[in-house]
Amino acid sequence: MSILPWRRTARPALLLSDSETAHPLVMSGERMPSRIPSVFFTVRIDGAWRPRQDEMPGHHDPATLARHHLRHGADRVLSSYSVLDRAAAQDAANTAMARWHSPAAGLEVIGSVQLAVSAQDRELAEEHTRRHQNIDLEHEAEMRRLTHLQRVLADPNLRRMWWINQFPDRFDQLSDLVKELGDLPAPCEREDDGTRGDIRRFIDQLVTATDTPEQRDLFLKALIHALHVLGHHDLKTTAAQWQTQHEPGSTPA
Description:
The chain has helices at about 60-80, 85-95, 120-155, 155-165, 175-180, 195-210, 215-230, 235-245, and strands at about 25-35, 40-50, 100-105, 105-115. The chain has about 250 residues and is an alpha+beta fold.
């Protein structure tokens, strides 16, 4: 018998469509692991089994098989939940179990669960959550520090100032650092990850490369033609306005 007081709520009703042949089962005080293996739910299972009229029983003790199946079903669902999410875990278990289903030939079972959590298990789960939160915060802080360092080392001017600040008496060794870094890229911002970021960086390089009026005019003509073919008329109009504002040989406004 469980030492935990159960909440005084109505137990989920079992829909027994054939009460004459349904045999009730009750299992209380069952300890089942949560998402954290060392932290447990305390489970009460109210179930029932009945023989299937159209099949011969496949087990000499149907009640034993029914209890095993109900335990296994509850255990499978609860292992995905934290004991801190007791209500959600109970709903999920009841959704999976509270209907007649056949785990073996000649047998149908149904069940519902009520969950409780001991004070010790709750405290363990809360401590586990705090530890993971601290680990996540430390990881995030370390990633920010490394990203900042990468940004500094990828920029020649910032790299020089960083080196002077860190090693003021070893300025002559800066060239060795540059050689070891090679073509260190600047860190990608999160919003620049993937194809969108690649396109944005390519456009930045392209705009930087078109540094004469003639190159700019040629680029805009090609861009206007491409946007026309793609059917992006609003973008085409905007690009055409840029070309009108800065024609080759004109003074930019």
